[in-house]
Amino acid sequence: MKVIDKFTPGKTLFAFELLPPLKGDNIDTIFDTIARLAPYDPSYINVTYHREEVKLIERADGLLEQRVVRKRPGTVGIAAAVMARYGIDVVPHLICGGFSKFDVEDALIDLGFLGIDNVLALRGDNVRGERLFRPAENGHPHAVDLVRQIVAMNRGEYLDSELEHAKPTSFCVGVAGYPEKHAEAPNLAADIARLKEKVEAGASYVVTQMFFDNARYFAYVEACRAAGIEVPIVPGIKPFTTKTQLSLLPQTFGVNLPDELVHAVEACRDNEAVREVGVEWAVQQGRELMAAGVPALHFYTMGKADNVERIAKALFG
């Protein structure tokens, strides 16, 4: 079932995001997470995609050789396994980074064959160590271009124009939004303009980057509506877990941390206490957002279910 068809006025859905396990691990960690969160009736589960990394490997002759590695493969396989085992709809991520247009088309064909009809279209991160985003050869430089390709396939338009009687796909496309703007955007207005382009290209809903101040989400939704963006905007929530996140999250994601949260975390004696603060803060966020009638709460689990389980129990139990 398509995500956009799940949203119901007056009801807030529970959704969360999974990371594929590191290469060499098995899928049991994924199943364990789902087993702990399944009692709270998740409406859909996102499965992230992680682009390649370039590592320098020393050869026997002492020279360095560049080698491309993927530390977290398996997005499509995990999505199919989760849907088959639990009957829960999945939303695999699809990114521009590391994908040519032909790779994108093949991935979409595979997903269609598996009965998966939701994708989250993202540009993806830069290659580690590079300041600027570099698309793959014959790839897309921006998420809006990826959205356009997916929507074109929904019309039966494939890269091979000589195909006869090509069957259209039927994907529901989600995209990312940034309540405090994308790190590379000059300002929030410019970032919302880029979001509007993705929606006009055919995106059906938006999932936001994490935020810790609900006022920023509400202001963002208001600004999007003023810009003519009418699709559902799902808030993304990440529970705070460690003291190092006080500097890491603003640096990595460009998010602002409310004074009350900063003071509470700084007063913690250890990370166990920080996790307690993070759970309570996320519960408070969730209650206010649900009271406002948001379409869903999207939790960034980062592969750990214990804190999200407690939050889900408080909000959806």
Q: Can you put this structure into words, describing what you see?
A:
This protein is globular. It is built from ten helices and ten strands. The chain starts with 12 loop residues before the first strand and ends with a helix. By secondary structure, it is an alpha/beta fold. The mean pLDDT is 93.
Ends: how far apart?
A: 24 Å
Binned strand content? 15-25%
Helix/strand/pairing category: alpha/beta
Radius of gyration: 20 Å
Number of helices: 10
Biggest pleated-sheet summary: 8 strands, parallel, barrel
Mean pLDDT: 93
Reading side by side through the largest sheet, how are the strands ordered? 1-2-5-6-7-8-9-10
List the uncertain runs: none
Topology:
Layout: E1 13-18, H1 28-37, E2 44-47, E3 53-58, E4 64-69, H2 75-86, E5 89-95, H3 101-113, E6 118-122, H4 143-154, E7 172-177, H5 188-201, E8 205-210, H6 214-226, E9 233-237, H7 245-253, H8 259-266, H9 271-291, E10 296-300, H10 306-316
Parallel strand pairs: 1-2, 1-10, 2-5, 5-6, 6-7, 7-8, 8-9, 9-10
Antiparallel strand pairs: 3-4
Helix pairs in contact: 3-4, 4-5, 9-10
